[in-house]
Every structure is written in C-alpha cells, then in structure tokens.
Amino acid sequence: MTGAPQREPEAGPRPESLADLLGGRRGAVDATLPPLAFGLGWVLGGLGGGVLAAVLTGTAVAGWRWRRGDRPRSVLVGLLAVCVAALVALRTGRAEDFFLLQIAANAASALAWAVSIVVRWPLLGVVVGTALGQRTGWRRDPALLRAYGRGSWVWAGTYVLRLAVFIPLWLDGQVVALTVARAALTWPLIAAALAASWVVIRRSLPAGHPGLRHPVTAPVGGGEPAREE
C-alpha cells in the first residue's frame, strides 16, 4: 500500500533587495534614449539633426511616462534636462557640449553623496528610508546607519567612474564615444550599484539584525534594544 505523495517543502520568500525597494529599471532606460537619439541624429544630420532628434525623443519619452502614470514633476524635469542640454550645445556650437549638463550633474552628485556620508546622513539611507516610510527612524539604529554609509560609497563611486570616463571624451570631442558611454554607464551601472551596495549592506549588518524594514534602537536609559515596526 502506497502512502500519499509527500509534498516538497515550500521555498521561503525571496529575500528583498534594493532593486525591489527602489523600483525597476524603466527610468534609467528612458534616460538613455534622448542621448542615443542625439548621437544618431548628429551622425546623420550634424548638430541640428542631433538636437532635433534628442528633443523629439525626449518629448516622446515624457509623453509615454505621463501616460504610464509617472509623477508630473519627474516627467517635466526629465524633459527639461534634455532641452537644456540641447540649448547648451546650440549655444556653444559644439556637439559634445550636449553632455556637459550630465557631467556637471555627476560631479554634483558625487560631492553630495560623499558629504552625506561624512555628516552621517548617507543618501542611500535617506532614499531607502523614504521608500519604506521610516522617515529618520533608520538613523537611530547604529548598525543600519553604518551599513547605509558603507553602501553609499558604492553610489558615490559610480558618479566618480562616470566622470573619469566622460571628461576625457568630452575634452577630446568624442561625440559618438560619449553617446555610447552615456548608455553603457546608465542602467548597467545602476544595476551593478544596486547589487553591490546591497551586498555591502547585508555584510555590514550584524548577525541576527532584522533587516532594513525593522531598525533596532536602544531605549533611553539602557535595556534591551527595541525594534521599530
């Protein structure tokens, strides 16, 4: 007599990652389309062709993002960035200056991330804490604060890497290479930073820590640490 078939144990839930918490890749992919259009338009029709292609593509991307429900402010900022980059290139008459705004933004971002770590307000903690609705609760957990600080260095490094690639190409007037680098160092680099900073955070947290969603804080006057729900 055969027994009832045994059920295999169900797999536990997949551990949550930073990519899950911070959203998908759509925004990063969308951001690469206007620069790619500019590079192609420049090759085919010079500076005017590149600017026209970038603005038209940026407008189409903004319309698509609007229809899929992105926040109006985010949509408008993305389109404005494309238009400003195009105006800078038209003003200087140098196609490579279309990427000047991106270079300036990366320099400012690298500085902002580094300063945030030094002043113990790591931006990775600010972003994730906001996404989780924790406000500043994560800062009262010393282990989590330290882990976010270490993870934030990964993101600061991505901006430094972009600058190390973009600036020499810009100085040399390499428009096509800038276009390729802009695409290669957007979504692929963001994906790598998400994975790397998640590994850094997990390895920085002590064994038994309940994770990002549950900061552990010590009550005033000592006693056992309390978990924030």
From TrEMBL:
The chain crosses the membrane at residues 40-62, 74-90, 110-132, 153-171, 183-201. Pfam families: DUF3159. It comes from the Bacteria. Keywords: Membrane, Transmembrane, Transmembrane helix. InterPro entries: UCP010219. This is MFS family permease. The lineage of its organism: Bacteria, Bacillati, Actinomycetota, Actinomycetes, Micromonosporales.
